[in-house]
Structure formats: structure tokens, C-alpha cells
Amino acid sequence: MKPLTMFSVFTMLFCMVFTVNSQQPFLVEPRSVSQLYGQSVVLECKINPNYKPSETGEKPIAVWFNSRTQLDVSTSKYTYVQDNPTQAVNTGDFSIEITNLDILEDNDSFYCQWRLFPETDMNSAIANVTVVVPPTSFSLTHNGQLLEIGDTATFKDTDEQSFKCTVLNSNPSAVITWTLDNQVITNSVTSAVTPGTVNTVTTTSTLTHTFQQNDYMKKLNCNVFIHDKIETADVFTLIDVQFLTQTVTVINLSGDDSLVEKQILELKCEASGNPEPSYSWYKSDVSLIEFKGSVLKKVVSISDEGSYRCEVNNIFGIYRSSNEVAITVGEVGVNTAAIVVPIIVILILAGIIVAVLYVKKLFCFKPSSTKPDEEYGPEIATSGTNNFGMNLEQMKNTTPMDYSDDANNKINNDHNDKEFIANSGKSDKSVKRPKHPLAQEYESVYHVQNDTNNAKKEELQELNYADLDLKDSTGAAHPQRNTAATIYSEVKPSVTV
To answer: pLDDT tens digit string along 158-171?
Structure first.
């Protein structure tokens, strides 16, 4: 046996397909379709010309029917997709187009029929044409009362409510769902479809529901879907649930039931309701007419001591708080802290001031590192610098001040110095003389002023601090040798303190 070739395989498959096709009257059958009112649709029908061939060579044709009668495809309402009937016979394509869809005539079932001889007619599958018709109106009612879109439905939380959503004269019928703030409600919903006008229907959906206090001002939606060719409708209302909580509580926001005078008492009446309730406050069963809100707040005195309660009131009635808050008020004692704290602050500030002054004195009155005036040896007289670090040029540029009140004392002190030198039998410059009190006090930070106009430079070479003299009590300081009595002039600070 010879093996099968590829050509043989393809030939066999073609023969099998041709044989199967030869046994089927329709190559393509019509299918159901939906389209908007006034639009057009195409229903396909392609027949098999090789199915039961005629001995005379005649070719089969296809004719169209709806649920009522055979269609006249020669009119403007129904036309072949092919340009003419002869072409349809040659190709076997008897598809038709239905234009200007009408709900009364075209919302129907259709099929095509293979025909060669009357006794050999074969019908295709049935195709339903749905002419989509938008509804004429939507409506929403609450307990039989018509609501406009976005209106508020007001009722008590204890009563069962009935909402009905109606979609008039649509095709097909509407699918209605209920949502409360986007949460789907499935319980207590009933729907009905009734005939409308001209082959349309009316759909109604009724929601029977008891709403809760927390449903206040939520959005109740009636969502309507008819067909994907029609935009989904949304009819809604706002839920205004009226209520008043029967549990009323007084809360002490002060944090303590025992207060003292001038402290703040703050109480809150805890309740909720719709409409917003009014509040009344009582102290020891005496009405506090000055407080109207949910919060009582005041600065207390002794007379405010007592038991406090509140009441709330709206259209549902009056409810009294289930508890009372007993407040005690004591007298204001001596506030030790108010006295002690300022004193401590003052003492601290005083300590800081003293410390600052002490540190300032240390820096401003620091003793000189130069050799003191107790020694008046030749080495100092020839150094060109006085005994506290000031050179003679600086001394020349200073201006003396008058010490007329102390002139006699200065002369006497200098006279005593000279007597001490005479009794010791030594020269002036080799004897240590006592310091003048003024020099002892200011020598480290002050310098002696002199009159530069009358002093000659060469006369200042061997002078020291104690060699300055005043000619008179009102005159300027002049350099003098040790042979004359010494008077100290006024001194001023050499640095800024």
C-alpha cells in the first residue's frame, strides 16, 4: 500500500468539507440584534446553492419572514445587501437591511427560508430584532408623594418608609437597583413590568425600609439601566431622618468636681437629635436661664456650688439627663507661690548684677605688671618709662586736672619725705620713700597727666612718677627735680573701664 501524500490529504479534506456543506442549506443564518429606534440593522442569510441541486439546473433562493407575514424585500423598508436579486441568486447571499426601525413594525422576530421547490422549503434560525426605545419619564415617590430629583424626604426613624421608582414606556424593560450612599439595598425590594404604549413597557420597583438615625442626610438612589445604547439614569433623594436620643448625659470637662473660686467650670450635655434639640441647664433644680447651649462654662464663686443637670427638647419631646454632677467650690487660699517666686527672681537678678560688677572690677582694676614706685633707683630713672608701664611721651600728651583742695596735704607729705631722706643721710634717689596715698590707689590703672607745652623733652629723661609737681594749686603739672617738694596732680584712667 502506497503511503499518503500531502496532496492526497488536502484532497480528502476538501471533499469532506464540500460534502458537509452540500448537506447544509444555510451557510450563514440570521442572528438577534438590538438597535435604537429610527436606526438601521442588517440580517444575514447566505444559502448553500449545492444543497439538493435541481435536475433542471435551477438555483435555490431565500425569502424572508417576520412573525406575521412574508416580507416584501423590493420596498424601501427592506432591501437586499446585494445590489439586485440576480446577483443574490448567483452568490447565494440574501442578507437584508431594515431601515428606519419602528417599534411597532420592526420589534419582532425574523427568519429566512431556503427554497427550490415548494415541497423542499427549509427555514433558518430565528433572529429577534429589539428596537431600543428610551423611557418617556422617570419618577420617584415617597409614601405616595412625588419627589423631585434631589428633594429631601423627611420622616421619623421609628416609621417604615415606602419609596417607588417608576420608568415609563421603555423598550426593553428597565433594571432598577437601590443604593444608600453607594451601598446596595437588596432587602424589601419588589419589581413589576406592565405594558406601556406602542409595544413598550413600564417598570416599577418599590423599596420598603426602616431607616436608622445614622442614615441622616444620606443619599438614596434609584439606579435605572435599560440598554447599553441608553445612558443609565439616576434618580435620588436625601434622607432626613428625624430623631432624639433618649439617653442624655452630663459630662464634666473641668476634670475635677472640687473647684476653688475663680477657677473655670465647664460641663457638656451629651445628646443628639434631628432637628437640633434645645438645651436647658439646672443647678439644684433651679433653672439657669443664662445658659442655652450644650456647654455650660463659667468662672465659679462660692454661690455656684451645687448639683448640675440638663434637659434636651425637640419635636419628639423632652428628655432629662440620666445623671447629675455635684460641684463643690472652696475659698481661694494664700498663694505662696505668687509671693515666693517674684522674691526668688529678684534675688537671682541681684546676684547676677553683683557678679557682673565683681568681674568687671577684676578686669578693670587688674594690678600692673611693671615695677612699683617703691624703688626709685637710677635704673628706672633712665629707662624712659614710668613705674607702671607708661613712657614719657604718653605723659607729655596728657593734661593735668586741678587738685587745689588737696594741695596742702600733698606738700606736707612731700616735706615729710624730704625730712626722712635728710635724717637717713642718703641721697634722694637712693632712698626708698613712702608712696603717696594717691599713687598707691591708682598706680596700676591710671597715669599722671602733664603739661606738654611747658615741659622740655630733655628734662623728662630722669623723672619718675614722684617727680611731678604743681607750681600752684591751680597750675599745670611741671617736671621738677627731687630738690623741690613734690605735689601729685590729678590722675585719670589709662584704659576705658
So the answer is: 889 999 999 999 99
